[in-house]
Amino acid sequence: MAAINGKGKKTAEEPSTDDWSFVEALLASRAARTVYLWGPPGTGKSFTACTSGLEGREVFSVSLTPETPAAELRGLWMPKGDRFVWQDGVFVEAMRRGARIVINEISHASYDVLAILHPVLESRETARLTLPDLQTVSPAEGFQVVCTDNEPPDQLPAALRDRFDCVLRVGRPHPKALERLSEDFRQSALRTFDLEEDRAISVRGWLAVQEIEKELGREAAFRAVFGVERGEQLLRASALGHA
Ligand SMILES: Nc1ncnc2c1ncn2[C@@H]1O[C@H](COP(=O)(O)OP(=O)(O)OP(=O)(O)O)[C@@H](O)[C@H]1O
Ligand SMILES: [Mg+2]
After folding, report:
1. Tens digit of pLDDT for each residue in 22-41?
2. Ligand 1 site, CB within 6 A
3. Model pTM?
4. What is the greatest pairwise CA distance in the chain?
5. Kind of pairing, strands 100-104 and 144-149?
6. N or C: which end of the chain has fewer CB within 10 A?
7. pLDDT in tens, 206-239
8. What class does CATH assign to 3-169?
9. Strands 100-104 and 129-130
């Protein structure tokens, strides 16, 4: 894991599962108001962001696609009887309640979504949002934004990147996720994370193999989860202790 400051400079290096305890300590800190957590798929970023270091805070979660409407975060007018009433979106609700909001796949944020995030991520003092019903909302004490993605921070729009207090790369699966795997799958999973990043296999994949194996056997499980070719390679390698 490498910790990078908000301006994109590396301040530490070296992936290690132990580094998750640093991520967790940071999430629990009131000082870390805006956090960007990134790295290969299926290591536990979203899980940790939603469950760790809440310190009594509520947690809200949203996953973005380029089509996610800004109204999902900000809110919208909803018909009620013969009139319209304002309904807060998930981001505004989290602001009001001093909750943590986890925004997954932040690199997919549209310009409309960014326009909502920018003023709030900006700084504790100036964070506020004026809604279409003309209420101005400032985040309550404890409000925290944790964004996750597979993309490095330099793939984010510069103005968004600049608004994160902390940028953390996690390159290895969370130890608690690995604990759910049997010893041989755990070793196989860890070995794939020692390969190039795009060949690392998500813990999700190994959990799926483990489940399917119970009913259909190991060969079928590898083939079903990883495909015929890679499944056979991995099966052979795992038999040799090299997967
Ligand atoms: N701390 C944990 N305890 C138990 N299981 C975990 C833990 N962290 C992750 N897992 C398991 O690993 C799976 C993948 O975790 P998660 O969805 O958080 O990955 P991710 O890093 O966000 O992946 P992606 O980059 O694809 O979004 C989870 O569905 C869960 O089953
Ligand atoms: Mg995720």
Report:
1. 999 999 999 999 999 999 99
2. 41-48, 104, 148, 150, 174, 176-177, 180, 203-204, 207
3. 0.90
4. 70
5. parallel
6. N
7. 999 999 999 999 999 999 999 999 999 999 888 7
8. alpha beta
9. unpaired
